[in-house]
Design a protein that fits this description.
This protein has 168 residues and is mainly alpha-helical. It has 2 domains: 3-82, no CATH class; 87-166, no CATH class. Helix content is 61%, strand content 7%. Strands 1-3-2 form a 3-stranded mixed sheet, covered by helices on one side. The structure holds zinc ion.
């Protein structure tokens, strides 16, 4: 993510979470082969995105177009931004969410990530990508559980609670 649009995305994420970027530069690696452990289509640290050539016959292909690529990059950037705070602080809140919603760890982490993602997407007028992500996540137990909770209690409330808990 370089240039003007990249900066806009980074600023919106920072303003939404209230967390400063820990590094001046963020490297994003693009790999051709997908990793079987990554359902989302990438990793957050270091940010690694799995892309494949158009026309690939691989059924596991996750990133089918530019919109999907943007979604994965922004998803992983949100994780990366949250890494900017002491680990104990975010772990504390993830633990609270786990107990409150009786959900697994992946779901608890993504309650925060998806709430931030929704706010960022709405600010970027990416409603189409937002809908597509919610739809795609229905195929994964923990990610769909996280979206259900975000939609139930409201993304703004989740983000607000997250920030209050961090006491930034
Ligand atoms: Zn994630």
């Amino acid at each position: 993510m370089v240039g003007k649009n990249g900066k806009i995305v980074l600023n919106i994420i920072r303003k939404t979470t209230g967390i400063q970027w820990a590094r001046k530069e963020i490297d994003i690696y693009f790999l051709k082969d997908s990793h079987s452990k990554s359902w989302v289509g990438g990793f957050s640290d270091p940010i690694t995105i799995f892309i494949e050539k158009q026309g690939s016959t691989n059924k596991k292909k996750i990133i089918k177009n530019l919109s999907a690529l943007k979604t994965v990059v922004i998803h992983e950037l949100i994780h990366q931004n949250i890494y900017g705070i002491p680990l104990g602080d975010s772990e504390n809140y993830i633990h609270k969410l786990k107990n409150r919603f009786k959900c697994d760890r992946i779901c608890a982490i993504h309650i925060i990530v998806h709430a931030v993602l929704k706010e960022v997407f709405l600010k970027l007028k990416m409603e189409k990508e937002l809908k597509a992500d919610i739809k795609r996540c229905k195929n994964h137990k923990s990610y769909s559980c996280a979206w259900d909770i975000v939609e139930k209690i409201g993304y703004k409330k989740v983000v607000k609670e997250f920030k209050e808990n961090l006491d930034l």
